[in-house]
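Quick start: read one record
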Amino acid sequence: MQFGDNKIKTGKTGFEPLKTNTGPKPETNIIPRLGEEQSQVPGAAFVPGTPIKLNLKFDPRQINPEKPVVNYRQHTAPDEKTAIIDGFKLKDDLDEDKKTDFPHGEMVTIIASNGEVQTIPLERNFIETADRLREVRQRAEQGEDISQVNISLGIKMNIEDLNRVLGYDKKPDVEQLTPANIKSKHAEIYELMKQKYEFANSPERQAEIKQLEEQKREIVTQLYSDKTEEENQQLKSRYNELRQVIDDHYHMLGFERPIQIYDEIEKLASPELNIPVVIAAGNKDEHEMANNTDIVNLYSINPNAVVVGAFDEGGNIAEFSAESSLVDVYTKGVYTPADIGEANAKKLTSIQQKMSENPGLSSSEVINTSGSKIRGSSFAAPYASKNYVREMQLAGMNVVQINQSLEKARDMAQTESISIDKAVEKVINAYKKQ
């Protein structure tokens, strides 16, 4: 599958496919519609809808049994701020009616704060997500009280293509990336992304790609011009080979931002700052859902990131949500207009339309019966940020302990058949008693 070829036209989240032969592009926001069924993912070691068990030996007070616990900066002051890196200028279609409502970042902020947490909205400014994350770090280093960061956007790539671009498919003796092992291979992926980016960004490679692009254009002019069927097939085969090489080149160039974000997450997770970065796991489009495609948000490779996937209305992993060992926790990813308050709901075009069509109903009646949905892992991340990560910080947990605690709560919710909210509460209470 070529990235960007199969975008659906309704709704928005915060994710863009890694672009081919166009260079870095602004993050786009596309919300897939929920499907009805989930089936076995080919080659995966788990069934969608079932959280992966990592079998971690959980000890929230001990980072490494062989090393003394490091003194981490604490974020227990209730008035510390959450930095939201997102789009706040352009309006997005949030309720899937093909009409713009209000900015994606504003919706994320509504969920992350709900009037109870101070936020620092930072305009993502297209490809400058890493710069904004660097800005947060510098502000924290200068003494600003920032407790955490929420990034509900990213660059998605399917794992099959990631295997090819990083060269795993050419190493038969090396275990290829799968949804189950991708987190354990994070350091290896990071190093390979750096190598591939440096290779693609070299002047020599840039010159070679220009030559290949010229060859590709030349083939187009030759097709079907007094050629036999066999000759045309040979030209098509060569064209496809060139297209794959060129596309992979631009994939490699696209690794620049994920590399920078990986580095910034590492610095923010240091004991001196101890600031977790909460990242949405990513969303599948309709084509990816139909084909059970395994995707990953390249911003979420660093294991210090708190990666959040989405539940559907039934409390199961949503069909649109990315699902892999990178995901620390799954939580509420589908919202109704009533969930975001009457004032915000009235800004949704679907609500405005229904209110004009039903003048005899009150606004609250329209909002409560509209049937409109706002969904995506983009909105699961701020829910986890506010209700899980912040509460764990107030209890005294550091970045490493927060990740471990969320994984423990995720598995506890499954084994004890309780809600993820209840599982998180139990884990926090157990921590406080120690």
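The CA atoms of residues 42 and 292 lie 8 Å apart.
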